[in-house]
Design brief:
Elements: E1 2-7, E2 12-20, E3 26-35, H1 42-60, E4 64-68, H2 76-95, E5 100-103, H3 105-113, H4 120-131, H5 140-188
Parallel strand pairs: 1-4, 4-5
Antiparallel strand pairs: 1-2, 2-3
Helix pairs in contact: 1-2, 3-5, 4-5
């Protein structure tokens, strides 16, 4: 499974591509950070982020896009920009028919370090180790984008099994309710 990991942001947006193999084997394919100047108007910053993400999707053809879910931040303006950047990337993926998954920072940290409260240094160290990289990815946005892709590679099979089990349970419940209705109708008929 090829996954595009995205650490969304307006000033710096981390993009990565990771190939997931059998088990927990993952291989880094590409990583970069898209930067936009703070004095550029919002619409053009979002366009620059979207254009870069679209080039990546068209070049690398990921089977899924994993985007960090915006979580409570003290700076509302930063949170809005982050959410908007993630939104334009999700839109670009949806237009291409690529499934999009959102993962919280704590889910990503737990997946790659074993602790949902790990700091950026720990995440970067584990990403470097997991991918067997000769040097740590910099800046932190690049490491975070790789961590998102790794997290999705490892979590996607479990999430798919859970969704299939939920769908099976819902279908069984519908059949049960239909049988009950048929029995009531036959008794009260």
């Amino acid at each position: 499974m090829r996954v595009m990991g995205v650490d969304p942001g307006l000033t710096r947006c981390g993009l990565s591509i990771v190939d997931g193999g059998s088990g927990r084997k993952v291989t880094a394919v590409d990583v970069d950070v898209v930067r936009t100047p703070g004095d550029m108007d919002l619409a053009h910053r979002l366009l620059a982020v979207a254009d870069a993400a679209e080039r990546w999707m068209d070049t690398h053809e990921p089977g899924a896009v994993a985007i960090e879910r915006v979580f409570a931040q003290h700076n509302v303006r930063t949170a809005m920009g982050t959410a908007q950047a993630g939104g334009v990337i999700a839109l670009a993926a949806a237009r291409r028919g690529i499934p999009v998954a959102f993962h919280t920072p704590s889910e990503v940290k737990a997946a790659v370090t074993g602790s949902g409260t790990a700091d950026k240094k720990q995440v970067t160290a584990m990403v470097t180790r997991i991918l067997g990289l000769p040097v740590a990815p910099k800046p932190a946005d690049a490491a975070d984008a790789l961590a998102l892709a790794i997290c999705h590679c490892w979590r996607a099979p479990l999430l798919e099994r859970m969704a299939a089990a939920e769908a099976k349970a819902a279908a069984a419940q519908r059949r049960y309710i239909e049988r009950l209705a048929e029995q009531r109708k036959a008794v009260h008929g």
